[in-house]
Design a protein that fits this description.
- The protein is α+β, with helices and mostly antiparallel strands.
- The chain folds into 2 domains: 76 residues, 2-Layer Sandwich (Double Stranded RNA Binding Domain), CATH 3.30.160; 100 residues, 2-Layer Sandwich (Ribosomal Protein S5, domain 2), CATH 3.30.230.
- The chain is built from 6 helices and 8 strands.
- The chain has a 4-stranded antiparallel β-sheet. Strands 5-6-8-7 form a 4-stranded mixed β-sheet.
- Helix 3 packs parallel to helix 4.
- The longest helix is centred in the N-terminal third of the chain and has 14 residues.
Amino acid sequence: MGRRREPRIKDEREELDERVLDIKRVAKVVKGGRRFAFRTVVVVGDNRGRVGVGVGKARAVPDAIRKGSDRARRNMKRVALVGTTIPHPVETKFGGAVVMMRPAAPGTGVIAGGAVRAVVEAAGIRDLLTKSKGSANMLNVARATMDGLLELREIGTVARNRDVDPEAVMPFWMRTKKKRGDEVSDG
């Protein structure tokens, strides 16, 4: 039985997308002077709608990365997706960082930079328009992005709550795509 478990753990680690966003040297002032350590911000995702952000701090960089990765794996959350994009626009703030995300038509790609790109790509989002405003601190931008992704609601859930047809709450490009195929030309 022990042999069966080991390959599963290796497979799980291989399929997760792990990215180190930021490595900073931080100092703690003590009686004898300064004590230096490293703080890392790590994003882990499965590219299928689950993503997590973790922070690790240690005296050595590899230890800090390992701690951040472990925390990110423990904090993985499910994100609502519609195909390769998000179901609706969202704007969130964390600290001084403000992140705005809008759904995009298939084929657009991820229009984002830095921490936002790493988080949404790890979540498996392939088409998205974003803008990061305010603070450029990687940790705050990553957390604002995570908060925004967690605010997203499934189309079916929103439709049930509003007691309307799911097509009424779909993004405009999904509705127009369906209607184009139904159109009959006059010519």
